[in-house]
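Supplementary Methods, section 5.1.

A reviewer requested that the exact input to the structure prediction be made available. We therefore reproduce it here, unchanged from the version used in the analyses.
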Amino acid sequence: MSPRIPRIMSALGGLTAASVIIMSAFSGMSAAAEPSRKITAEVMSVPMARTGADVAKVEEYWRPDRLSKADNSTPKTADPKPVAPARAEVGSTAVTAAAKASPTAAAAPSTTESATAPGLPAPWTVQPAPPAKALPVSTTPRTIGKVFFRIGAKEYWCSASAVRAQNRSLVATAGHCAFDVRSGKPVEYWIFVPNYRPGQQPDGIYVGHTLSLHLDYAGKGDYDYDYAFITVNKGFKWQAQKDAKGQLTYRRVSVGYLQDNVGGQGITAGRGTTVAATAFGYPAGAQPDGSRPYDGHSLKWCSGTTKKVVSPTYQLEQGISIKECDFTAGASGGPWLVVYNAGTGLGFLDGINSLSWNRKGGKNDEISSPYFNTITQAIYNRAQSIAIN
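The structure derived from this sequence is encoded token-by-token as follows.
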């Protein structure tokens, strides 16, 4: 058993040894095939809100009045690292998400990608689920939205996306948007609001059911694994109505499975470190120069060809990055999509916003993601196997 497990299990209390699942690399993958290291995946599944009482508690917390003020809370950034950097790094902060235009104004990225890195097998992919309704080109992808949660007494938010899954109930985001490394515990009151609009929930609110992530992120903050898959409960909406006295009240209305309502992005891994990708998210934080070009109210994007990046400070050895992206805090957890179709709003998830970089001074100019590989597949498979009643 990993030396990290006892500390994490102690912090989580209810987590049992059976909850920590050691997964080997998927069939046909040899040790030499991985980019550099970490051939086995230590998958940790942590309960969030599973019982009816727990779900109701979270739903009641995020009533319309609180949700309407949620953008005023703090966009989540990367947790501070206890590891001393091996080299100087300029302004490495938790990712933000942004672009200089709305995603609907961008042409879809080229579907021509670089060849798979030497030694890697053909990429593993899961086809995207079609959206519940056809999306016009001018429509923001309904699968992408915001997650809101609490750590201690403070509220935070990040970006996230719905992903196709067997249980029709899966969300992908950054690890630091679901698990607090400093306390060794998952965040509290976690919800996903797809197709986000300020203070609105057009396609429902989905309470986190189970968090699945890699033990090396939870145990030591290894940003090679700063991603998480959250299995969510069936969704609900707050529906406004007036009581007998004409006063505005709200009632809870069930809306069913996430994937049935908004569709789901496909997912892919093992494509190599050089691919054409488009990153999405809701940036809101300040730039290093103090400017605040984004307010977190609308979805932004940026795109480019990825390259490999490393960060000893964040124990990142297998990262990929996109240059010329000035994302700020708030975009953490937003999806990186390859072969993105602007008409349907669908593509294949090949990364998430994890860290932003300020290499030239002034404003952020690069974003990075963990590299998705066979370990990502193992964590995804665990998350999509969790049944939702």
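The chain has one domain: 5-384. These observations are discussed further in the main text.
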